[in-house]
TrEMBL record:
SUPFAM superfamilies: F-box domain (SSF81383), RNI-like (SSF52047). Residues 9-59 form the F-box domain. Pfam families: F-box (PF00646), FBD (PF08387), LRR_At5g56370 (PF24758). This is F-box domain, FBD domain, leucine-rich repeat domain superfamily. SMART domains: FBD. CDD domains: F-box_AtFBL13-like. It comes from the Eukaryota. It comes from Helianthus annuus (Common sunflower).
Length: 451
């Protein structure tokens, strides 16, 4: 070993135990345990970690048969590994216990309850469980130390799972549940809950009611149910600040006193009933920030008197964009994805010349996040730059295949567009896509990391 390597090794070994524990707690538990083979000094260092992050979900669809064979041969080692990791853990307060097990690991299910019980005995604060299971030990739902809980349970033979009859989580502030059949069972069971994410499915026989006075952040994933558009999602959340709605819009929203609402995001892929779009937007007309994806509407938009930031993701036509601009007189920031400006010529001349009020007095920032440089994009930029009178910054994120650095003609064409605002600055950025993740598997015996 070189002297430089020895010095680095000495420097690491000289760090206080709590610092080393924090470093190892940032790693997946498997890697943290492997440091025990470095030297005698490191043999038991990992046992003081405060995070136990155990992920056994690695698989690739194109190699299902190979991976299934690989998984079946290692389940026993994996069970031994988790058993020993929990047994040797010296900390009395585990900050995070994360357990993710893929669909192939059916034999592991019988051990899950014991592992979760062990984590609860270690005064766990955050639980993140994604397993093949349709029930969990009662200790999860009566844990006095839990502040964050994420549950995603599934089983091939079951449509969903249910909360037990006994639930009380006095310190829980964040709850994320997937695949639960009775989410309303949490009412009154989490007295300090602030953040909630859950799936809801409505039918015409029973409305979905959510009554949580302490809630500040809410995400609802709407599943397609048997509703004919007459069902209701009733929200009694007087302190709510942010609302996210995703999925299939098939119910009315009833919200009592949403004056505290600051921002909302709607990403419903479709709705069988156009009037439900108008209904939910009317309920959200007081928000300051709004993000909408894949929105299809025929009804007039409400006025958003407090709107400061609007994000439109997906593909938007000229008429839809201008309707939103006309409905947001105080808008300052516009973030937009793809534009379809082909209907621009179809507008009546006097209609197309009307300039929304926000473009005359308030709109200072535009972010065009997915510019292809085609005719529609150029028409959009010509309209916005030529009419926004107080615009300060336009940032154009071009698709990677446009390669702004190698296509100065595109930049020059945009820079030649007349601007209504003399102080407008145009910035160009390349929007790079993340590289595809390669699948790798590691057939190392998990149990070998232990002496």
């Amino acid at each position: 070993m070189s002297s430089s390597t020895e010095n680095v090794d000495d420097m690491l070994s000289m760090l206080p135990e709590d610092i080393l524990s924090r470093i190892l707690s940032l790693m997946p538990t498997k890697l943290a345990v492997r440091t025990s083979v470095l030297s005698k000094r490191w043999r038991y260092t990992w046992t003081s970690v405060t995070n136990l992050d155990i992920d056994y979900t690695r698989y690739h669809r194109s190699n299902e048969k190979i991976i299934k064979k690989f998984v079946d041969g290692n389940e026993g080692n994996f069970i031994k590994f988790v058993d020993r990791a929990l047994k040797y853990c010296r900390t009395s307060h585990v900050k995070l216990f994360r357990l993710h097990v893929s669909n192939y690991h059916h034999a592991i299910g019988s051990s899950v309850s014991n592992w979760i019980d062990s984590a609860v005995r270690l005064n766990v604060r955050e639980l993140d469980i994604c397993v093949i299971q349709y029930e969990l030990p009662l200790s999860v739902f009566t844990c006095n130390t839990l502040t964050s809980l994420r549950l995603e349970l599934s089983a091939c033979d079951f449509g969903g799972w249910e909360f037990p009859s006994t639930i009380y989580l006095p310190c829980l502030k964040t709850l994320d549940i997937v695949g639960c059949n009775n989410p309303q069972a949490i009412h009154g069971c989490c007295p300090v809950l602030e953040s909630l994410s859950l799936e809801v499915s409505c039918n015409d026989e029973q409305d979905f009611v959510l009554n949580i006075p302490t809630l500040k952040w809410l995400k609802l994933i709407c599943r397609s149910g048997s509703s004919n558009g007459n069902s209701k999602i009733m929200l009694r959340v007087p302190k709510l600040e942010y609302l996210f709605v995703d999925g299939v819009l098939c119910s009315f929203f009833e919200m009592e006193d949403v004056s505290s609402l600051v921002g909302a995001s709607i990403a419903c892929w479709h709705s069988k009933f156009d009037f439900l779009w108008a209904d939910i937007l009317n309920k959200l007309s007081g928000v300051q920030n709004l993000s909408i994806e894949n929105f299809q509407f025929t009804s007039p938009l409400p006025i958003f008197p407090n709107m400061k930031q609007l994000e439109l993701t997906g593909t938007w036509r000229h008429g839809q964009i201008t309707q939103f601009l006309e409905s947001c007189p105080e808008l300052k920031i516009l973030i937009i994805d793809f534009v379809d400006w082909r209907d621009f010529k179809k507008q009546k001349p006097e209609k197309s010349m009307l300039i929304p009020a926000c473009m005359q007095t308030n709109l200072t920032t535009i972010k065009f996040s997915k510019c292809d440089g085609d005719t529609c994009d150029m028409k959009f930029l010509e309209y916005m730059l030529g009419n926004a009178q107080v615009l300060k910054t336009v940032t154009i994120f071009a698709q990677e295949n446009l390669l702004i650095e190698e296509d100065p003609c595109f930049c020059a064409q945009v820079l030649k567009i007349p601007r209504a605002s003399p102080h407008c600055e145009i910035r160009f950025r390349t929007r790079k896509l993340p590289p595809p993740q390669e699948f790798e598997y590691d057939d190392t015996d998990e149990a070998e990391a232990f002496y």
